[in-house]
Amino acid sequence: MTLLKIDSLHTYYGHVHALKGINLEVEEGEIVTLIGANGAGKTTTLRTISGLIRPRKGRIEFDRQVINDLPAHRIVEQGISQAPEGRQVFSTLTVTENLNMGAYTLGSDQDAIEENRRRVFGLFPRLEERKKQLGGTLSGGEQQMLTIGRALMARPRILMLDEPSLGLAPMLVRAIFETIREINARGVTILLVEQNARMALQVADRGYVLQSGEVVLSGSAASLRQDEMVRKAYLGIS
User: Residue 109 has what pLDDT?
Assistant: First the structure.
């Protein structure tokens, strides 16, 4: 079933035409990746889906409902969460408090919040060890775990990840991508923006290549790994 559908999406920053008629679909249960150079429109796509930027034209449908005009918090309530680029943890809040911020859609349902925390700690045992530690004192890898965990606290149907491997050591990058697979195996659909195209195409089912705000190529991850343009531009293979 198509969970997320974007049709002819146009987004602007002032007079700058950032997305120029984007079309993409994400099926329930998939991992779909967006790859492209800096400035291609990958983050803008996620921010538009999240309601942080309003599209000027086009449609965004989630579970067959148009969500273009919903405020960001309502989009989270519908079942879409985002782990933003740059982690953006609350540095003066503890790990537990950061996670609780992600569960605001659950209101005062403490049982549900505690259950979600247990799920996150099951994925990231290091966070449980650091649960009383301030977010700003965590390592880069731990902050990335916290960012993803915070997004999962709302129990999303689709999790959007923006550059989860950015600035991490290779060993931590591998661990993060193993966790992405585990999250997906637990039933969460994933839309992944990632500069590390090699790793992204290893974990994803399908992908879209963006250039200057347009989709220039799409297909299965396997077919994109073999595409000559992708190999030269993003995988470093001539």
Answer: 82
